[in-house]
Design goal:
86 residues, alpha+beta, two-stranded antiparallel sheet, 64% helix, Cell_div_ZapA-like
């Protein structure tokens, strides 16, 4: 993949500026980063004294947990579709 195919976007997540480089559309990158920012702020509102490093780890754990749940639902739906076809 060439550098010309990559997008470089500067975003703000939890008060810090990050330059994100990726092949996704700039709007997609901004959307994902805004969701990370939202989740960090949500977790921080419940735990206002947590340091940023721990907050970032908790945000990652929450995101992966959500991903695993969605993956399990997807696999379950695939099984249901397969059963309906059989």
């Amino acid at each position: 993949m060439s550098e010309a195919e990559k997008n470089r976007i500067t975003v703000d997540i939890y008060g810090q500026h990050y330059t994100i480089v990726g092949t996704e559309a700039p709007d997609t990158i901004r959307f994902v980063c805004s969701k990370v920012d939202d989740k960090m702020r949500e977790i921080n509102s419940a735990n206002p004294y947590i340091d940023t490093g721990r907050l970032a780890v908790l945000t990652a754990v929450n995101a992966v947990n959500d991903y695993i749940k969605l993956q399990e639902k997807y696999e379950d739906l695939e099984r249901q579709i397969k059963q309906l076809k059989d």
